[in-house]
Amino acid sequence: EKAEELDFGLIHADVVRENVLLEGDKVKFIDFDDCGYGFRLFDVATALLKNRQEPDYPALQSALLAGYRSVRPLRTELFPAFLMLRGSSGPSSGGLPHSGTGRSRSP
Fold it and tell me: How far apart are CA 8 and CA 31, in angstroms?
């Protein structure tokens, strides 16, 4: 699969539950300091990463993907790879253990 075939555009890049606010039937996002251009599958992986140990994770993953696809198409063949990449992208990723050898970002 070629990268050109994946959905690429403006992404939040830090869609975790702490950055999602619910107000009635409205959903609002905060903390846009990581946003930029990237693969939209990265945003989906970010949203799901910290929830992998939840007992209802398969249902959560299915619901998120179905909801996303109700708005725009999304190819997910490489989803496991994006989940792994997101999990290894830093100490705050909530995914794979951090080796401590990476550089942290300054505020």
Answer: 20
Decide: 98 and 104 in contact? Cβ < 8 Å: no
How far lies 25's CA from each of 18, 21, 28, 44, in Å? Answer: 18, 11, 10, 21
On the question of pLDDT at 67 being above 70, the answer is: yes
Name the average pLDDT for the chain.
82
Res 99 pLDDT > 80: no
Structure confidence at residue 50 as a pLDDT band (50, 70, 90) = confident
Q: Which residue type, as a one-letter code, is found at position 56?
A: D
Cα angle value 48/82/67 (rounded, 5°): 45
- The C-alpha atoms of residue 44 and residue 47 are separated, in whole angstroms, by 5
Tokens 């939840």 map to which residue?
54
Spatial contact of 21 and 9, defined as CB atoms under 8 Å apart: no
Check residue 89 and give its pLDDT: 73
How far is residue 37's CA from residue 43's CA, in Å, rounded to a whole number?
Answer: 11
